[in-house]
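Narrative progress, year one. The postdoctoral researcher (J.K.) led the effort to move from monomer predictions toward full complexes, under supervision of the PI. The following entry was the first complex the group processed end to end, covering 875 residues in total.
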Amino acid sequence: MTNPKLVLIDGNSLAYRAFFALPLLTNEQGIHTNATYGFTMMLQKIVEEEQPTHMLIAWDAGKTTFRHATFSEYKGGRQKTPPELSEQFAYIRKLVDAYQIPQYELDQYEADDIIGTLSRIAEEKNIETIVISGDKDLTQLASDKTTVQITKKGITDLESYTPSYIQEKYGLTPIQIIDMKGLMGDTSDNIPGVPGVGEKTAIKLLSAYETVEGVYAHIDEMKASKMKEKLVANEELAYISKQLATIERAAPIEVTLDTLHYPGPDMEAVHEIWHQLQFKTLLEKSAFQTEAKELKDIDFEVISSWEDSHFEDDMTFHIELYDEHYHTTEVLAVVLATDSKHYVMKGDAAFSQPLFKAWLEDDSKQKRCYDVKAFQAVSKRFGCELKGASFDLVLAAYISDPSISSSQDLASLAKHFGYTEVDEEEAVYGKGAKKKAPEDEALFHHALRKATAVWELKEPVEAKLKETKQYDLYHELELPLASVLGEMESFGIKVDRETLEKMGVELKGRLTEIEQRIHAMAGESFNINSPKQLGVILFEKIGLTPIKKTKTGYSTAADVLEKLQGEHEIISEILLYRQLGKLQSTYIEGLLKEIHDDGKVHTRYQQALTSTGRLSSINPNLQNIPIRIEEGRKIRQAFVPSEKEWVVFAADYSQIELRVMAHMSQDEKLVRAFQEDRDIHTQTAMDVFGVAADEVDGNMRRAAKAVNFGIIYGISDYGLSQSLNITRKEAALFIDNYLTSFPGVKHFMDDAITSAKRDGFVTTIMNRRRYLPDITSSNFNLRGFAERTAMNTPIQGSAADIIKKAMIDMDRELESRGLKTKMLLQVHDELIFEVPVDELEEIQKLVPEVMENAVELSVPLKVDFAFGTTWYETK
DNA sequence: AGTATCACG
DNA sequence: ACGTACGTGATACTG
């Protein structure tokens, strides 16, 4: 017998939520269906994910409740339920009946109270309970046994409130949620609270005094303030509010747990209602699911020796790998499939069979893949070249929407396109320490289902890309780039172990010295790497003034410590310790661990991850090797050419983002400045400060540079004030001056936001998209973030498009000229090569030329370059 | 597993 | 009044 699991649902709250989250849909009879539809989606999800044994949907009973006796204005000022919603309640109730979920309401009580009472009873019987609502009030019911899930965004996105989550989020216990409401009130229920007290203040008071009663017991100890006056004046309101917010947990309900047994839905009845309301997608999906489940028993053939008859001109090619580290991980199986053929070969044996190799390397045999770059790199490990890759599901999905990233597995990716017949990786392999490859049969099935998903999704996903005019971006930029990147990764870059080890020994000595000095100054020994312990030493023992706080305590971040420098000699030692410690752990020890037997590191570029279209680099990350501080920069001395007498060659775009902005905004002054190749930061300083070129001093240029950065990031006065250490007012003035001087830029920024609001997304010069659902949010923070993103993404993303195009051109040029020079790394706006000396002259001309002509903008692109015996020397 | 910190463009 | 710069990844600590 499985353990009982009880799910309690706040019916009214979810119905409202569904109604407002979805546009007002109607069926052919003119019946509104949006709330019913949303409610169905929620039920479907809850039933599938929670698999409850017992369930109840609780409803509010009527107009008045016992709370109105306490406070007649309770829930006053509320908008009347829209008639379009009222008419849907009948359908929702019918639907719930079809699902065979018990429903209940009780006169004079609200759904909250029914749920509170039942969850108490369940708790006493030690039964696991889930409460689902759109109302955060219910979180007061959370306990070890009871999880409260609150709708978050959309209709099926839920946030789980457990006692520890509530502690984390608010610093309160579930019971204190009641006290919080008592102090801050709740506008939606017309609970008054203490005027002027909001969430932040309420939490502060409660963490000091625990309860509303505690606050008033200690009110005399509080310093005189506006807040204190308000608290004193509204004591009675606070108590009434707390009482109103308290869920009744002993309501006189007539249902018992036994009557809440949930037998599962009567699907026939459910389908009938769906049919009546014309929920076509749900009906189709449900039909598709039953159909597809039979598809799971697809016949496949386990191959031990490939034959000509196995191969087709167009197939899915899939390599089942143990984990994502494809440069080293084990090959578990190789799969070839079409809609009618399904072959699998265990392990990596396929690669050693000539027939297979010939097919793999035949450009005219099309391969549909899940991750071309990975499969290419794996093939290369076995001495094979993957050719004819005609489709990459990861890339195609990412281009259609970059929030579908490669960090999701195929199952969740396919779901975005309505395909559900694949298991999650975790379900097949397990997770954490328990992860292991399944038995052959399960493994083959899983690999085959993935291959089938890839086969099925090619057409619809490509059609979608054509519709949004993104097919070229996918097919002519990202897909060819995957091969170029795969080549770079497989080739790798040589790292000199001895150089790093020598630096490591020296660093270790210095670190112990500094550590001893710090401990001596502190008068005790402690862990400097623990922000918690360090905070205690600095701000309690030594008594320095904390400048910033984090969620968990004092901030000891570098910008805080820098402000404290001069107050105590320990500060500069700590900063140095942090700096050197970072070098030691991340760049010496970390990098050493990544050196393969060939003396090289082989990063993996994540081509389908960032929201802007940039690449990212992992295992190791070669896009954040130190450069700004000399001590760190020396790490680059360990990056050397793989052949004697070759050199490292580095070329970077100068001001690519500002040039892109000039092009996109068509700001006259900015365009001209670049066309005349002027120093852009000096030019900005002249305009912002209204001075002549020779009057711009170092500080003015530095400020102008920060303003330029700010503009690219989607400026805010606060952000600029932080970066320049000036007041917000001064920062606002800089920005204002800038936007007046460059009206084209102002127009561009405004337009970015307007078009994002209109279309729901922003685009780059190559039609890369980023969706910004939060741009219309009523939440100030979310909206502000989306607005800055709307300004930044077209710039950062277009720069990414450009260098990607340059890489493809560069690769073709090296190939067609038969050069031995290798492209090794990409670091957002720069490319790193290794070059035989006899090609150096040609490369010095070729690389800048290719990069500068990757695209044509209304401003010139400019490339600087340097070379040397190590990466360090390319300055 | 989440948080703080710090490395890069 | 709100509370922020944009985009990443690796490490150490801590509950």
